[in-house]
Each structure stands twice: as C-alpha cells, then as structure tokens.
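From the methods appendix. Each design record in this collection lists the tokenized structure first, followed by the designed amino acid sequence. Records were kept in a plain field format so they could be parsed without special tools. The example shown here is representative of the layout used throughout.

RECORD:
FOLD TOKENS (456 positions):
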C-alpha cells in the first residue's frame, strides 16, 4: 500500500505540521531516552542538486528550488540547502532545517545564532556551538558575542598568517598528542575577547608539503614559459630589460632570480652586410636569466600550511585548550552525516518529487533516517566498549569503532527459511557464523530472539 500517492500525502502532512518542528521534537525525545551528551553542537550546511523542473509554490513557507553556490560542483542544476546540527556524542542529528537553494552559509549561521542563543540560555547545562570557518564572519560577529562558540578562523584574514608566524617564531608549543601541538593567544577581534589556539598538525604538515611541492613545480614551469618569451624580446637599454625581468619576479612566490646576463645586438643604418665603416643606428639588448627555488619561502609556506587557528570565546575555566581542540576536531561528525545523506543509494534525486514543500519534507525524513542510523551505531559501539570487545574491519584488523554500514555488510548472507513438515511451519535461520552471532548479541535480547540465538 506504499505508493507515490501515499508518500506525497504523507510529505504534505509533514510540511503542514512543520518539518523543523517535527524533527526537533523527535530528536529531543531520542536524546533524552539515549542520554546523549549535548554540550558540543556541530553546525554545518550542504547542498542537494536536483534535476527536476520545480515551479514556485504559493505557500510562502516552502523553500525555493533554485540555482546557488553548489557544494556538489553542479552549478548547472537547481538545488536546496540543508542545515544540520549534530552532537559530538555519536554524531546524532539534533536539528535539521532546509533552506532556499541560493541561501548563503553566512545567512544561515546568522539566523541560527539568534535561535541558539535562546536555546542555550534556557539549557540547564552549558552548551557550545562548533562550526567551520564560515561561522566566523564580520556580519555574524554581533550574534557570536553572546554565543559560546568554537570555530576555525578563516585563512583569508591577514591576521591569521600573522598569528601563525608569531607562534612559529616563539616556538613554545604544548602537546595534545603525538601528532598535534598548540599555542594559545589571548586577543580581541571583531569586538570580542577571544582565545585563539594555533594548532600544528603532523597530518596537515604532510598535506602542506605535498601541496607546496606541487605548487612549486607548477610555478617553475610557468616561469620557464615567461622567461622564454622575455628572452626573445629586444629592449632599448639594459635598464628596460632588467625592469621587465623584475616585474615578472615580483609575482614569483617560491623562486628567486639567481643570475642574469645581457646580449647586445647592433642595428645598422644601411641595408646589407655591415662593414667597419657602416654607421650604427641603435643597440638593442636581450636578457637571459636563471632562477632557483626560494628555500626560506618554501619552508615558511609549509609551516603555514601545517598550522590552523581555532577561535573561541569560552572561558578557560569552563573549557580547557585541549577540550576546545578536541571539540573542533569532532566537526567531522557533521560531515559524516552529510556523506550518509548524499550516498548514491540514498540520494534524494532518486525520488522525483514535484513540489518544493514535499522536497522539504523528504529532506526531513532523510535526516530522520540519519537519526536512527547514528543512534544504532552509537549503541553498537557502546556495547563493544562495555564488553571490551572488537569486530574485524575491512582489512580484517580488530576495531572498536566499526561503522554501522560495515556491520550491515558483515550481516549479509543470513537467510530466513520456512519449512513445512506435516502441516507444521518451521522457521530456520541460515548463514550464521561466529562474527554474525557476536554482532546480533550486541543489539540485545530482542534481536537474539528474532534470529533464534541465545543472548549469551
């Protein structure tokens, strides 16, 4: 009885009730039941590219399916934007809201900051919002003053490179773990007293080394092309030739001029082969140059790339530096939720829904599926931790944090067989092995009853 008409009417009812309201009510009930820690709230947005021809609705509360900045790199398609806030504890979605396809992150975060301020003030326990660098903007600074936040400071601000350079010069690092260390700086920026943490990551250093090396090789090839054309030109004087070379050199980032030489070319006043008496009309100059890598700049660029700055207005007495860094690193929880929602097996465009209001309802239903998935995965990992046990991962190594998707793949091959013997129906479960039985027992007694195994 589940057909497209039933689906459409259900989505209409969801939209009429309020997609955001319905999801928040369900999420709050689940968090209370599961005892989910809501101190760190990770906020992010993504876009869903859609292939349908969506007409504007008369309902003013429906989103507009339109062109905008595409995070899927499909600028040719219309889209909708989804805002998601998840907990650090298990990546459980706490909030879901759909926006117009052309809504910017700054606009989304501005409105969310206002709503979160009221929510956090009424919360019995301290709560913090964690987001990427899009949260930290001059336009949102006014709203962030009263909102406890942890965010990455964008590299586009000049002060960031200055702060990192200062930290590299001082070299008084504190270890977080084997691959991460940091320095703290207290300052006032955008009218807010803040704590900035310059974080050095070994993984980021490896990425920066690769990126700088590729950029250096690319620049060297471009310089050789520039010098080829420059050396083919003739100039009226050595000064003008050197000025042209210097103009090119100002744009070089990873190289410097090593040596150069001039070649004179005489231009005679008459045609034909010149003789010692032929008058010289003018002398033209060619320039040849050699470049070498700028080791100091290359090393500085690698060091800058290995560091990033985390900003927070939360007092140190309330949250330590290490907790701030750990809280920001868990921002991957929100990105993991988007990967789940945008998986090809679950993608919204695989279902063609004509009305924007129904798209809005469908996005809420998809996020509800993420809620179920994340809670189930959290329960599984907690059961493994309580039993101090592991499961084999994709390369047959023990892990205590398997993804639920991999667990589902491990369970593939179990069959429920019904056999009739003397008018009596018997149910048999085939395909169970040691690993599958261990997984089923982790889900509790009710699941064990379904699969006819002892709860152990």
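DESIGN:
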């Amino acid at each position: 009885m589940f057909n497209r008409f039933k689906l459409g009417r259900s989505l209409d009812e969801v939209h009429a009730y309020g997609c955001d309201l319905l999801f928040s009510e369900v999420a709050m009930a689940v968090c209370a039941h599961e005892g989910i820690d809501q101190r760190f709230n990770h906020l992010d947005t993504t876009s869903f590219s859609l292939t349908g021809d969506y007409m504007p609705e008369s309902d003013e509360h429906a989103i507009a399916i339109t062109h905008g900045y595409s995070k899927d790199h499909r600028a040719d398609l219309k889209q909708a934007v989804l805002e998601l806030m998840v907990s650090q504890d298990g990546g459980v979605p706490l909030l879901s809201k759909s926006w117009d396809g052309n809504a910017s992150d700054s606009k989304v975060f501005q409105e969310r900051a206002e709503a979160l301020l009221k929510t956090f003030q009424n919360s019995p326990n301290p709560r913090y919002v964690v987001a990427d660098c899009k949260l930290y903007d001059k336009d949102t600074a006014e709203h962030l003053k009263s909102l406890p936040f942890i965010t990455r400071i964008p590299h586009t601000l000049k002060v960031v490179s200055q702060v990192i350079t200062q930290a590299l010069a001082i070299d008084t690092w504190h270890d977080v773990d084997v691959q991460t260390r940091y320095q703290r700086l207290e300052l006032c920026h955008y009218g807010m007293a803040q704590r900035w943490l310059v974080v050095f990551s070994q993984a980021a250093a490896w990425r920066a080394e690769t990126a700088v090396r590729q950029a250096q090789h690319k620049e060297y090839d471009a310089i050789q092309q520039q010098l080829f054309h420059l050396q083919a030109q003739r100039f009226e004087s050595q000064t003008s030739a050197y000025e042209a070379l210097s103009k090119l050199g100002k744009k070089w980032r990873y190289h410097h001029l090593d040596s150069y030489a001039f070649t004179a070319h005489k231009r005679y006043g008459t045609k034909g082969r010149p003789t010692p008496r032929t008058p010289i009309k003018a002398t033209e100059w060619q320039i040849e140059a050699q470049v070498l890598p700028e080791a100091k700049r290359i090393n500085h660029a690698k060091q800058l790339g290995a560091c990033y700055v985390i900003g927070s207005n939360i007092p140190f007495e309330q949250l330590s530096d290490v907790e701030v860094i750990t809280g920001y690193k868990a921002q991957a929880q929100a990105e993991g939720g988007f990967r789940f929602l945008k998986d090809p097996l679950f993608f919204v465009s695989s279902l063609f829904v004509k009305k924007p209001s129904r798209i809005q309802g469908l996005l809420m239903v998809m996020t509800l599926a993420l809620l179920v998935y994340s809670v189930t995965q959290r329960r599984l990992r907690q059961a493994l931790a309580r039993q101090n046990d592991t499961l084999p991962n994709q390369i047959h190594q023990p892990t205590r944090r398997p993804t639920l998707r991999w667990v589902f793949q491990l369970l593939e091959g179990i069959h429920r067989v019904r056999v009739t013997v003397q008018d009596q129906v018997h149910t048999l479960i085939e395909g169970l092995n040691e690993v599958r039985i261990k997984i089923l027992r982790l889900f509790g007694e009710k699941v064990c009853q379904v699969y006819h195994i002892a709860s152990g």
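APPENDIX NOTE: The mean pLDDT is 87.
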